[in-house]
Amino acid sequence: MNVGRPPQLTTTETSSSNQCMNNFTLLKKLNPSAYTKYQAQFNKINDSYNYYQKNRGLLEKDPSELIELNLNDKLNMICARVKSQTFIEHQQRMKVISII
Fold first, then answer.
1. What distance in Å separates the CA atoms of residue 100 and residue 85, rounded to the nearest whole number?
2. Considering only CA atoms, which of 77, 78, 73, 76 is closest in space to residue 38?
3. Which of 99, 74, 75, 84 is nearest to 26 (CA)?
4. pLDDT per residue over 33-92, tens digit each?
5. Helix, strand or coil for residue 6?
6. Is 75 helix (H, G, I), strand (E, B) or coil?
7. How many CA atoms, within 13 angstroms, populate the side-chain half-sphere of residue 97?
8. Radius of gyration of the CA atoms of the chain, in A
9. Residues 6 or more apart from 13 whose CB is under 8 A from it?
10. Span 19-28, pLDDT tens digits
């Protein structure tokens, strides 16, 4: 899954992207319906990012920067949602164990 990041990533961004991917993969096993929901959100970001990449040369500097910032912010928000949902799923499974 390409989560819409620009091709040149810093080490920190690569690490964050990898963790997002790991959480997303784990969520697929823990809660397939939540996975499907977030997959649709990632797809929208990817589609928008691909459109932006194709048309970036037609945009002035400020609008181009604003679009890229918004796309990256949305991507980070979805990654945070996935991380939170994964934590919730683990927490629910641990409740079952704690009752024993």
1. 24
2. 78
3. 84
4. 999 999 999 999 999 999 999 999 999 999 999 999 999 999 999 999 999 999 999 999
5. coil
6. helix
7. 5
8. 16
9. 5
10. 999 999 999 9
